[in-house]
Each structure stands twice: as structure tokens, then as C-alpha cells.
UniProtKB/TrEMBL annotation:
Coiled coil: none annotated. This is GNAT family N-acetyltransferase. InterPro entries: Acyl_CoA_acyltransferase (IPR016181), GNAT_dom (IPR000182). PANTHER family: GNAT-FAMILY ACETYLTRANSFERASE (PTHR43415:SF3), SPERMIDINE N(1)-ACETYLTRANSFERASE (PTHR43415). PROSITE patterns: GNAT. It comes from Corallibacter vietnamensis. It comes from the Bacteria. Residues 9-174 form the N-acetyltransferase domain.
Length: 174
């Protein structure tokens, strides 16, 4: 298992013990907008997902890592998705579960670790993310890590009966 260590947090692979944590996140309607989720997930499906989490990013086209502090508390998740080996790119998603842990540098450190991993181990050329126009904290986070807004998708996501615009951000890795 590769562990990516930062000053205050580390990233690790998914473990079977993460079932309850992921179950709570995947069934939290307040964050469904972030992941375009529309239905709840059963523990059975999440358990199956965890059983296949060992599969290689080249096979499943995604990598989900757990964000932990050095007290081994699980804080959040950070993902690479839509992994495209041919074009050396992937999408990035991040969620710090507890609102009290947000805006404390945890997401920034996790994103820095993932960027470094993407360059050094996956040889990616670029990363991208999709962020709601109203999600100021995520926009600030990704911009602080040299992601640039390259487009605005108008009326992209239907959320609670109204359409929201979504930014597409990109970072070319050097």
C-alpha cells in the first residue's frame, strides 16, 4: 500500500473498515450535488465497491483515497476519476466530510499530495475538475493550486428544481 504523507494529513488506500464512513458520505443528500448523485447507495453495493477497490487505476479508470489525520481519524475522500491513460489526464474530486474540518488547510494539503502523486507516479500531463459556480470554497482551493477556469457550462446541473452553472478548471502539470 502506498501512503502519501503530508505535514498534517496522509492519504491511504480504501480499506474494508471504511464501509460505514463511505456509506454515510454517499447517502448524505447535502453533498449529492458535488458528485451528481441522485440515489442512495446500500451498504451491500458499497461493500462490493470496497472489495474491488484493489483494482488498478488503469483498469477501473479511477482511484479513491482516504484523507486521514495523524490520529488515524478519517477526514474525507479525494478521487481521481475519468483516468485517461492515452491523453495523460484525470478528473479530481475532493470532500472533507465534517464542516468543522473545512477551511483549515486539509483539502489544500490533500490536493497537493494528489497532484504530486499524479505527476510522479502516474505521469499525468493534466488534471481537471468541475465546480459549481456557487461553490466559492472549492473554487478558491483549486485556484490556489494553479487550476485555471477554462470554461463555464451554462445550466449544467439541475439542483432542487433549478439549473446551476458549472466551471471547468484545468491544471497542466509541469
Amino acid at each position: 500500500m502506498i501512503t502519501l504523507k503530508g505535514e498534517h494529513i496522509y492519504l491511504r488506500a480504501l480499506e474494508p473498515e471504511d464501509l460505514e464512513f463511505i456509506y454515510v458520505i454517499e447517502n448524505d443528500e447535502s453533498v449529492w450535488e458535488l458528485s451528481s448523485t441522485q440515489t442512495p447507495y446500500s451498504k451491500f453495493l458499497i461493500k462490493q465497491y470496497l472489495e474491488n477497490a484493489h483494482k488498478d487505476i488503469y483498469e477501473v479508470k479511477q482511484l479513491r483515497l482516504v484523507i486521514c489525520n495523524y490520529d488515524d481519524q478519517t477526514i474525507g475522500l479525494i478521487d481521481l476519476f475519468d483516468f485517461d491513460f492515452k491523453n495523460s489526464r484525470a478528473g479530481v474530486g475532493i470532500l472533507v466530510k465534517d464542516v468543522n474540518n473545512r477551511n483549515r488547510g486539509i483539502g489544500k494539503e490533500a490536493l497537493q499530495l494528489l497532484i504530486s502523486y499524479s505527476k510522479e507516479h502516474l505521469n499525468l500531463h493534466q488534471l481537471y475538475c468541475n465546480i459549481s459556480e456557487t461553490n466559492e470554497n472549492s473554487l478558491k482551493l483549486f485556484k490556489s493550486q494553479e487550476f485555471t477556469i477554462i470554461g463555464l457550462k451554462k445550466d449544467w446541473n439541475l439542483v432542487k428544481g433549478s439549473y446551476k452553472n458549472e466551471y471547468l478548471l484545468q491544471r497542466i502539470l509541469k
